[in-house]
Design brief:
The protein has 237 residues and is an all-alpha fold. Helix 1 crosses helix 4 and helix 4 runs parallel beside helix 7. It contains 10 helices and 2 strands.
């Protein structure tokens, strides 16, 4: 068991080191030697887990896609405040981009012309945004004149821009960077009634990482809602 756990830790360390190297230098300019040095492991240890650099890239991309799926969760078709959930999840994604090297590298690989991988994290995010806005429209939260595809494109483009800017300055991944976008977007996106109940800075309940927690409140066991805990300055998001 100890040997198995050590192998898992070694694999995770190699993925993390590869992610940091790819994000820093790009896929083509990253070498197996650089990754091994960063991980503090030998070439033999790397080749035991991964046949080549592309296999490492695929592992990074797969891990990043899994993390993104964990952040967004499934689309809750009966969520009480789908637009708040969208806002909260964008804050969570931005925050995780600043702290999760593998997630960050997954997005970087997607825009790297030298990377031949197949996953597309931005398409994964865009699809989730579209589904959330579809839920909001069915619920009656969207303004009547909103063109769904235009809204999806705008939200995806802005979050993508924040991700790119954050590679040089992590402040772009902060709550202070995401909130102004929603302050501008929500008056166009939501009905007046829905907008009154949406916090552009994010609600105080943690956004769902498995699709089980409601934004601004938590679901009770019988499907009721429990009030969120009071917000403490910027500690929530």
């Amino acid at each position: 068991m100890a040997k198995q756990n050590r192998a898992v830790r070694t694999r995770q360390e190699l993925i993390r080191s590869a992610a940091e190297t790819f994000a820093r230098s790009g896929f083509a300019e990253s070498s197996i030697t650089q990754i091994c040095v960063r991980a503090g492991l030998s070439h033999g240890a790397l080749h035991f887990h991964f046949g080549n650099k592309r296999a490492l890239g695929e592992a990074v991309e797969s891990a990043a896609a899994e993390t993104l799926l964990h952040i967004t969760g499934n689309v809750p078709l009966r969520h009480p405040v789908p637009l708040q959930l969208l806002v909260d999840t964008s804050h969570l994604l931005a925050r995780r981009l600043s702290t999760d090297a593998v997630l960050r590298a997954g997005f970087c690989l997607g825009s790297d012309a030298t990377w031949p991988g197949g996953a597309d994290l931005w398409q994964q995010w865009q699809d989730w945004v579209q589904l959330m806005l579809t839920v909001a429209r069915a619920q009656g939260s969207l303004a009547a004149d909103i063109v769904l595809d235009d809204a999806v494109a705008a939200i995806t483009a802005v979050v993508a821009g924040l991700e790119v800017l954050g590679r040089r300055d992590p402040q772009w991944h902060s709550r202070q960077a995401v909130t102004p976008f929603w302050r501008l977007m929500l008056p166009q996106l939501a009905t007046a009634q829905a907008r009154a109940g949406i916090a552009p800075e994010g609600s105080c309940a943690e956004p769902p990482e498995g699709g089980e927690r409601a934004a601004g409140a938590e679901w009770g066991e019988a499907g009721g809602r429990r009030a969120a805990q009071p917000c403490d300055a910027l500690s929530c998001c």
